[in-house]
Amino acid sequence: MSTNDTTAPRQHASTGPALPQLPEPSHAERIRTLISLASVATLSTLSRKHSGFPFGSLMPFALDPAGRPIFLISNMAMHTQNLNTDPRCSLFIGQAGADGDPLGAARATLVGHAEPVQEHDLSSVRETYLARHENSRYWVNFSDFSFFRLQPIDLYYVGGFGVMGWVQAREYEDAVPDPLAAVAPDILAHMNADHVDSMILLARSHARLEATEATMTSVDRMGFYLRLKTNEGIKGARINFLHTVATSKETREVLVEMVRRAT
Known about the structure:
Pnp Oxidase, Chain A, Split barrel-like, 8-stranded antiparallel β-sheet, 7 helices, 11 strands, elongated, disordered N terminus
């Protein structure tokens, strides 16, 4: 896990009273988390037919240990022909299972070069890709299919309204997905279904916001975000845990303790 828990200054719309900036995962960590949960994205290549125009394609992908996207693509596909002419491309990844306003959901764009995987890496790349896309075993051995890998040169992250910024490729490569990434949807569903009163209490205690409704919109190892309905309108607040967590059990225990202290 990264020990660097600082991030660039952020700006959120309608966050209520001014509070100290709270530590949270960096944009690089958030991109690694976001992309680790996805398996399909939009690949934009440079059109060979219409020079200078971007050409978008639906693209299943897997990630190598450095977080670089891997594609298994047919030589007949238009995007493959485009990449063989010019390897410059971008990959757009949206937040998996995002509900409500799509502009409020997290997304990222990886800009870089996608080129064929070298012979000495094919075995490990093949294993990694098939572990993510089992159905690809039906065509992975076809002679007209080959593996490409995208090497990012820059990345752009949008975490919702007013939360955005560029991330250097090396910073992204050094980051790791948040330990709660896989269980976060279950935590959110449980809190929003059964513990609205507790979240309203925590918003009052930690964010000095009086709310009539509360929704937990995201959670990470350091804390969580709430969307709050107040008499002044919809507001957002980040609340940090008493300490970092890595499992559902630890998350539940620290939330129980925080509610106990706020009561």
